[in-house]
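hiii, so i know i said id send this last week but things got crazy w the move. better late than never?? heres the sequnce for the chain we talked about at the cafe, plus the structure i predicted for it. fair warning i was half asleep when i ran it
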Amino acid sequence: TLKVAAGKNVILDLYGHTITAESDQNSGNRDVFDVRGSLTIISTSNALTRSTNGGIVYEHKGTNMGWSASTNLFNITDGGVLNLSGITAKNLGGSDMAFVAHLNNWGECTLNVKNCVLESTYIAVRVFNSGNDMNNVTIKNSTLKGKYCFWVHNYKGAGDSAGTDETLNLDILNGTNTFEY
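okay and structure toks below
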């Protein structure tokens, strides 16, 4: 797992290249990137290959993950911010609990996606509203592919009062987006 700690700012330019990772784990959560600070991933033109679109491909080769575990390309939590621009990000393999971007909001989390393809065997973007904080999601001019493209899971734990609803600030209308099964 590559971690971006709270308070840290990381910019990764794929420069037309692809990062690959794989896992055969069959229990517990597995994250390729754990984002608690700010992570920006872009892909500028690579003059040698004439490629402008970089990517990240994660493949789970183990048994399907159950409800108590997940495989996440990006786990955004504790106030993390993930900005993706001009990349293809895939979380393949297995069929359950595989996410490209998993917003797990123990602290306000933000996902900004522009001109990208996010593809998963299961769900491209999962927003897990687990606390009383806001999740912010903006997706513009992008394609989401998966068994389900987008899932918002509002969770209220024991003792939550009626006045502590979780909140989602969602902008997927100001742009041209494609959702594919």
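btw The chain has a mean pLDDT of 84. thought thatd interest u
miss u guys!!
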